[in-house]
Amino acid sequence: MLLINMDKVRDALAFAKEKHGAINQRRGSADLPYIVHPYAVTTLVFRYQSDFGNHLEDSLIAGALHDTVEDAFVQIRTIIDMFGFGAAKMVAAMTKNPLILDKHASLKDSLDRCEAIGPHCLALKNIDRIENLNPITMPVKWSLERRKEYVSVEAQAILERGRKVGLRDTSNRLENAMDIFKKYIE
Predict the structure, then answer these.
(1) Residue 12 belongs to a domain
(2) Which residues of the chain have pLDDT under 50?
(3) Domain with 22 in it
(4) DSSP states of 144-169 as a string?
(5) Which of 42, 49, 85, 103 is deepest in the core (most CB within 10 A)?
(6) Residue 56 to residues 63, 66, 186: CA-CA distances in angstroms?
(7) Which CATH number does the domain housing residue 56 bear?
């Protein structure tokens, strides 16, 4: 049985709450505190842990912190120092490269970096997209075309990459979330 330091996971969630809260970041149309997203991602990582193998602790921590670099201006070095290299490496792979302006090229770059780390990092990408397909927290300002592209192009690319490396649970769940979201936007 894999032992997980849940205090470290809770510390990562508290750190994310502090950093996202410091910039008053909100979540979608529900205008919720942003921390609901990292909490949901972390919960889903735990629920679908079979796709994370021996990397579950790092994946839970990365789930909590995956948006802190991109959104809350936290340095990867800080994450390494506080939570270890394994989790920081995943956070870095999940973070958009600011030098790549095209969103499809940016997604491909992130997927390539996740795949280079291992299937567990792509599983985290699946989980993040599952949670982002929640109609309650999706930005209301997005046009119907943007919503369709988000699910049919971007989520599809994530799903295909996860299937390619043999992810079952998180890929099945992402596919289900995509189907539900497509019905929602029709």
Answers:
(1) yes
(2) none
(3) 6-185
(4) HHHHHHIIIIIIHHHHHHHHHTT--H
(5) 42
(6) 10, 14, 36
(7) 1.10.3210.10
